[in-house]
Amino acid sequence: MTWQQRIDSALQARRAAAAFRVRQAVENGAGRFLTREGRRFCNFSSNDYLGLSQHPAIVRAWQQGADRYGVGSGGSGHVSGYTTAHQGLEEELAGWLGYARALLFISGFAANQAVIAAMTDKDDRIIADRLSHASLLEAANLSPAQLRRFAHNDVAQLSALLDKPCVGQQLVVTEGVFSMDGDSAPLRALHDAVKKQNGWLLVDDAHGTGVTGDEGRGSAHQQNVKPELLIVTFGKGFGVSGAAVLCSDSVADYLLQFARHLIYSTSMPPAQAVALSASVAIIRSAEGAERRERLSEHIQRLRRGLHALALQRTDSQSAIQPAIVGDNARALALAGALRARGIWVTAIRPPTVPPGTARLRLTLTAAHDTQDIDTLLEALHDAS
């Protein structure tokens, strides 16, 4: 088979399974509404859970940061790209989330890849929740360590895997809030099981930090757990982009020596770090608490409506509320019917989710109002 034949065969298989992915350019996409080809849609596909991506104070902070530092960092943090703006944000994150250190990364994907690659060796074992994000599972697959998966949120199966002999160290990997199902990991029980075998727990809390817990400190803080490695990303509740790893002093020093994604990547623009500091301040403020309360009310309203429509849901109390329809073609048809009504919803299909669980991934933000949710439910009722 030639290169071209391999490519054509893979694309044909995706099209035949109604799983072919396409991008659609929008004029703006993070807020309550997005615009495509001059038409406005109410947006239920954004991860901007607190509606901060267009917050005037954060936008202004980025502009002021660009005025001071320029629009790029100019290099790796190990060379010349680590500024006082980066240092200040790292210190704020560490103090807020209760860790000795924070290290900034350009994306959550890069942070997960870097940490897992740097921390594991061939004698080690990684045990990951089966529904962990692709960035975690890919990093584990590419690492020198052995990878084992446990059934979603199944502490008993995790414990059984941890009990098996392992020459090296054991790293358990999970998410705080799962990106496709929207449900939460039982972090306390997971951490207790890990500690019994002297392992470490890595939690990717991309969809929890900023949105859950006191001052938005996230899933682990809400469950009174301190994982050895905490990954937070800034493209969801923070309304910006990038990521950070929260850890001990010694782990931070180790990653600065051995995390290749950190060493050999241009650091995030300092202006972005300034904007993120402004975002953290809002998340921790009374305004942030009000936005989280509004979001919580929206979540309960949508869940009640989905229950009345008898649409299959997950056990999610988060801003991610999937409506599982099973069949790929039906998921695409429902998404199309909603867009015809001016509602932007995305059909999620395998391989992103397990076969037979194609869904509409409905996401809520504090920027929505109750009428938006009622309009969505009415459209779902008519299209189902």
**Termini separation:** 43 Å
CA-atom Rg in angstroms = 21 Å
The helical percent reads 40-55%
Number of helices: 14
Judging from the principal axes of the Cα atoms, what is the shape?
Answer: globular
Could you say what the CATH architecture of the largest domain is?
3-Layer(aba) Sandwich
Number of strands: 13
Mean pLDDT figure:
95
Low-confidence stretches: none
Q: Biggest sheet, in brief?
A: 7 strands, mixed
What does this structure look like?
By secondary structure, the chain is of the alpha/beta class. It has two domains: 22-49 and 286-383, Aspartate Aminotransferase, domain 1; 57-284, Type I PLP-dependent aspartate aminotransferase-like (Major domain) (Aspartate Aminotransferase, domain 2), CATH 3.40.640. 43% of the residues lie in helices and 16% in strands. The chain contains 14 helices and 13 strands. The protein has helices spanning 3-16, 56-69, 84-97, 108-119, 134-142, 155-163, 187-196, 219-222, 249-258, 260-263, 270-284, 286-308, 328-340, 370-383; strands at residues 33-36, 39-43, 101-105, 125-129, 146-150, 170-175, 200-204, 229-233, 243-247, 320-326, 343-344, 347-348, 358-363. The strands form three sheets. The chain has a seven-stranded mixed sheet with strand order 3-9-8-7-6-4-5, with helices on both faces. The protein has a three-stranded mixed sheet with strand order 1-2-11. It has a three-stranded antiparallel sheet with strand order 10-13-12. Strand 4, helix 5 and strand 5 (146-150) form a beta-alpha-beta unit.
